[in-house]
From TrEMBL:
Keyword Ion transport: no
Protein name, as recorded: Rhamnulokinase family protein
Species of provenance: Paenibacillus thailandensis
Family per similarity comment: Belongs to the FGGY kinase family.
Membrane-traversing stretches: none
Keyword ATP-binding: yes
Domain Carbohydrate kinase FGGY N-terminal: 3-241
EC number: 2.7.1.-
């Protein structure tokens, strides 16, 4: 029996077929497509209609390959949303979370509500682009889209609605809005009231693994496919990625490595206390009412964006070429804090890296290899910092780090991560989110008994590369310097 996972990331999306045979999973990418946001005027939007078109192409390709998926599920990045009007039409184009319209908004909201109140009610880390701040920015701007909104749908909710005609909010993604109260188990009406946001547009929240309708017959006719059941999986891609971590212990540390690096551990209850708030950790909902106690790290976005800048300047390198240049550059020449706000938005990343270095009294990296080395070493050092915070906050000591996601194809980054944390890195699987998406569909259909069984099957099905730590003293010395210059002491 074949099933289908749509996994949409910030830079590309894919449709992946999954098969389960003799306790082994097989995955086959049947369609891959770019996800290019579109800037119109000063605003940056997702191209929702194109993404939906590509999803249909995936289904068509499956049919042409002779496959009829027994179910399908969608996961995407979090935080972003669309608003439907009374007639069920999408109002406006959903904003990209890297758009500037939320500038200053978090500070304004926190000055009114206090961080204690907001974190205490949601357990969600403060990120300037969280849904809450996008919505309050729209309200402050008198945005007519918000005034007309009848339904609030996160991106996968919206794509699923397009497929089925049914509107639900899925739990893993709902938590990332910073409007969901995990202690009350629902949208936080008091918080919405204080913000003046219409509670009525927030709908029923369903858990990962809930059947959420059938493919609309009009789409079936268009593509020549029968009606297919649609499952609400862990629709936040990080939720799906963590579901795919091939850990056998109940407690483990992970790093979901893609455009973002998400590092943390899985817990049974949200950790909402003073320390979690101070360290700015988050508690995002997961499969089986688990929570991801984690922190966002800027991740490979900085490298992707630096590459785009080089491409624009006519210096075109592939990612493997860039990594090779980094390997040949001198070690620890310059370091940045990847999470400095300088690096959040799109633009001239290489110049900003140099600016950061000048600001912190370092010699700015000159050649391409030096720049890429600075990015990758700094990421690995930040991983160590967050790894230690995760241990401190969860009161555990981890034997190593599970890394999943496309970023693990960068073997140098995996090795440097092991070097930085001084513990082994277990890297695999690469297609974490798609595999977690498939796993939850199989749990929903009863093919897999539980998330524990799913992780065992994943461990037996996909290779894991082990990176043992090396060069301890050099990394230790660099870590001390990194903390000082990033002000992380
Ligand atoms: C990763 C991710 C992160 C979220 C960021 C923005 O793809 O979903 O978990 O913080 O994108 O939505």
């Amino acid at each position: 029996m074949t099933i289908l996972a749509y996994d949409l990331g910030a830079s590309s999306g894919r449709a992946v077929l999954g098969r389960l045979k003799d306790n082994r999973m097989e995955v086959e990418e049947i369609h891959r497509f770019p996800n290019d946001p579109v800037k119109i005027g000063e605003r940056l939007h997702w191209d929702l209609l194109r993404l939906f078109h590509e999803m249909k192409q995936g289904l068509l390709k499956a049919r042409l390959a002779g496959e009829t998926p027994a179910s399908l599920g969608i996961d995407t990045w979090a935080v972003d949303f669309g608003l439907l009007g009374r007639t069920g039409e999408l109002l406006g184009n959903p904003y990209h979370y890297r758009d500037w319209h939320t500038e200053g908004e978090m500070e304004r909201v926190l000055a009114e509500l206090t961080p204690e109140y907001l974190f205490g009610r949601t357990g969600i880390q403060f990120l300037t682009f969280n849904t809450i701040f996008q919505l309050t920015a729209m309200k402050r701007a008198g945005n007519p889209v918000l005034e007309q909104a009848d339904k609030f749908l996160m991106i996968p909710d919206l794509l699923r609605y397009y497929l089925t005609g049914e509107a639900f909010n899925e739990f893993s993604n709902a938590t990332t809005t910073q409007l969901y109260n995990p202690l009350l188990g629902g949208w936080d009406a008091e918080l919405l009231g204080k913000l003046g946001l219409p509670a009525s547009m927030f709908g029923t929240v369903v858990d990962p693994g809930t059947p959420a309708g059938q493919l609309r017959s009009s789409i079936g006719t268009e593509l020549g496919v029968p009606s297919i059941p649609v499952v609400a999986v862990a629709e936040h891609d990080t939720g799906s990625a963590v579901a795919a971590v091939p850990a056998l212990d109940r407690s483990f540390a992970y790093l979901s490595c893609g455009t973002w690096s998400l590092m943390g551990t899985e817990v049974d209850k949200p950790v909402i206390n003073e320390l979690a708030q101070k360290l700015n950790f988050t508690n995002e909902g997961g499969v089986g009412k688990t929570y991801r106690l984690l922190k966002n790290i800027m991740g490979l976005w900085i490298l992707q964006e630096a590459k785009r800048e080089l491409d624009r300047a006519g210096q075109e390198y592939s990612f493997p070429q860039l990594v090779k240049l980094a390997e040949d550059a001198p070690p620890f020449a310059a370091l940045i804090d990847p999470d400095d706000v300088l690096f959040l938005h799109a633009g001239d990343m290489v110049s900003r890296i140099r600016q950061y270095c000048r600001r912190t009294g370092q010699q700015p990296p000159e050649g391409v290899g030096a720049v890429v080395r600075c990015i990758l070493e700094s990421l690995a050092l930040k991983y160590r910092y967050v790894f230690e915070l995760t241990e401190q906050l969860s009161g555990q000591s981890f034997g190593g780090l599970h890394m999943v996601g496309g970023g693990i194809q960068n073997a140098l980054l995996c090795q440097w991560s092991a070097n930085a944390i001084g513990k082994p890195v277990w890297a695999g699987p690469t297609e974490g989110s798609a595999i977690g998406n498939l796993a939850v569909q199989w749990i929903a259909s009863g093919e897999l008994a539980s998330i524990g069984e799913a992780r065992r099957v994943i461990r037996d099905s996909f290779p894991v590369t082990v990176y043992e730590p090396q060069d301890g003293p050099a990394w230790e010395e660099a870590y001390g310097r990194f903390r000082r210059l990033a002000g992380l002491e």
